[in-house]
Amino acid sequence: MKPPLLLRALLPAVLLSCGLLTTGCHAESKTKAAASAAAAPASGWKVALQSTAWKATGFEGNMDLSGIAAVDAVHCLLGSDELLGVQPGLLDRKGMTIRALPVIPLVANPSGAKGEVDVEGVAVSPADHCYYVTGSHGVGKKKGEYDPTRASVFKLPCDPQTGEITGKGIQHASLMPWLERSMEFGAFAKQPLQQNGFNIEGLAFKDGRLWFGVRGPNVDGHTFVIEVEPDSLFEGGLPACKVHTLPVGEGRGIRELAAVREGFVVLTGNAGAEASKKFPVSVSRMPDASFDLFLWRPGKTPETQSIGQLPSPSAKAEALLVLEDSEKYVDLLVLFDGAPDGAPRSYRLTRP
């Protein structure tokens, strides 16, 4: 028999605070002292708005762009959290434009009924000539309904010569069977964000692994990244996972992450969601208008450093694309959910 929901929801926090959060999926433990600590000082990083001249044109669901990745200097893939597909694009870096190509369906919708994959992250492995796309694995924010389509991860091959996506050979998987069995997330799966429910909002590919950024839950000031071996995910059965905990502060969650030479740039924001009629009280009352950047270096000391706050956001910061990763700086393109055409802006993160 399962323990009461409240006890199940509190159990991960209790174990985390006691330094006992370890399971068969190799979760990394944190002591209570570490859980209450903020990220290390900024250590000289500087964040500056570089350009607002970027434009994205022709994208469907353009008010809800939520993920982007590029396999080369020209070809990219964008996701919107209101569509049943994804949309390739052509990058013109000098002209600062992203031009949309036709939508590629991810799931069939023969009835024409409204549905969505709730795409929240797009990543790419150039060496493997493929993109990865993840749904939120969360429930509806207004009514809390569960749609298995949202609990999806897709692998899309692209042409090694041209970088183009044909839409053929798409593979489908889901983290939900593992999530419901995991010590860390079992009590939060299929729960609304307003009640600290589970939700993915970031995805990156690095070192042959997929890294899923978790918006919710926030447990004792920590959020999570799930590291997954891709083949184990798409071969069926329970995937090989490792859970990392990141100190980001109470009520904060990952909104996106991007791979860089040291590790990852992690974008954080409000972990909760706006109240609805069914869920009038949110676990987080902070406005969803400020977004912090962290450098996360798995296995290094310190693992997490504050880079700074994202200046002049035009809406909800949702998607990151690394334009350049040099020894002295990282140039990021940021897309914003809730702004027309994603209102792309470029930022320079200067290394110390």
Blueprint (SSEs and pairs):
Blueprint: H1 5-17, H2 32-36, E1 46-51, E2 55-57, E3 65-70, E4 75-80, E5 85-92, E6 97-100, E7 104-105, E8 119-125, E9 130-135, E10 153-157, E11 171-173, H3 176-181, E12 199-206, E13 209-216, E14 222-228, H4 230-234, E15 241-247, E16 252-259, E17 264-270, E18 292-296, E19 304-309, E20 316-325, E21 329-337, E22 345-350
Parallel strand pairs: 2-6
Antiparallel strand pairs: 1-22, 3-4, 4-5, 5-6, 5-7, 8-9, 9-10, 10-11, 12-13, 13-14, 14-15, 16-17, 17-18, 18-19, 20-21, 21-22
Task: Based on the model shown, name its key terms.
single chain; 352 residues; mainly beta; Tachylectin-2, Chain A; six-stranded mixed beta sheet; four-stranded antiparallel beta sheet; 4 helices; 22 strands; 8% helix; 39% strand; globular; disordered N terminus
What would your notes on this structure say?
Helix content is 8%, strand content 39%. The protein has 352 residues and is mainly β. The protein has one domain: 5 Propeller (Tachylectin-2, Chain A). The strands form five sheets. Strands 2, 3, 4, 5, 6 and 7 form a six-stranded mixed β-sheet that branches. Strands 1-22-21-20 form a four-stranded antiparallel β-sheet, with no helix packed on it. A four-stranded antiparallel β-sheet has the order 8-9-10-11, with no helix packed on it. The longest helix is centred in the first third of the chain and has 13 residues, at 5-17.
